[in-house]
Amino acid sequence: MSFKVSRRGDVPPFIVMDVMQAAEAREKAGGDVLHLEVGQPSTPAPRRVLEAAKRALDEDRIGYTLASGIDPLRERIARHYKDWYGVSLDPAQVMVTTGSSGAFQIAFLAAFEAGDRVAMASPGYPAYRNILSALGVEPVLLETGPEHRYQPTPALLDAADGELDGLIVASPSNPSGTMLGEAEMAALTRYCREKGIRLVSDEIYHGIDFGIRSVSALESDDNAIVINSFSKYFSMTGWRLGWMVVPRDLAGSMERLAQNFFISPPTLSQFAGLAAFDCGDELQANVARYARNREVLLNDLPAAGLDDLAPADGAFYIYADVSRYTNDSAAFSTRMLNEIGVAATPGIDFDPARGHGTLRFSFAGATGDMVEAAARLKGWLKG
Length: 383
What we know:
3-stranded antiparallel β-sheet; 12 strands; 7-stranded mixed β-sheet; Aminotransferase_I/II_large; L-aspartate:2-oxoglutarate aminotransferase activity; pyridoxal phosphate binding; single chain
């Protein structure tokens, strides 16, 4: 007898996780690995976050919280928007979530019906299209390149076939690191407002930028769904804590979905995350290290033969054209790991149609690792 299996799980893998698995296997076998595959800071959570977590374990029973999170954290996140963007928020608009991944699930479920069509830039974060596909929503990929700075534009949206129900923007972008300025973000929010397209703005890399200010969609549209996370700037990946700023028309349905899917975000992480906003010096030191790492790769990768690189305005990624060496980025990535111990993510994770000739390098790790990785690549590609 065979049992029914839903097709919802019939989505492509998140390939970076496969690369991580291969890298771990190499390490277990005694090989060394320079980890440029995953967007994970090499630093732990800030000191005050760790102290707050220890204090909470001693003083709190760590039970459930309300599905939208504890009030002090929601209030502190609302204040963050005033401090960083000059945007006034009611804390009731803030929903604390189980990482940004939990936020995407709730947002997509609340905003879109099965059969709806949601646009996004390609290359882009693969989980957008894979989660939407699992929910029966059609991802509409807008092919972007250097001429668009790898970001969607009103012209690209106009050129998309058929009606659109939603648009996902990510600034800084993963994998290209490009960012939307105030005018570009305002043009997209205006377009979506006029066309009745629900805008979801992924802002999880805000704070990690290099000379360009991170612009929130909320600065030009208070109806946008804004998603953020403690994983990147706040260096808390494994704590699985994120948040959303929720439009008033979706607040009730999002809360009910969160109640049923997650009960509450991780309680210990919420108490710890509250302290993260008081760790500015430590967090800015991390950003300064990312800036050094970025400079190393932008200088040394061209010397290794990789001279077609996306601008990397923000986040901690460099998207590199490797098409002169391969038309199979997955095989190229595997060979690179096996032969020189450098792990990077093949471009097909971000661009299924054109990513066979690209790689994403993460510079979230130690500066010494960036220097060594560039040296190994130079020897390998020039050898």
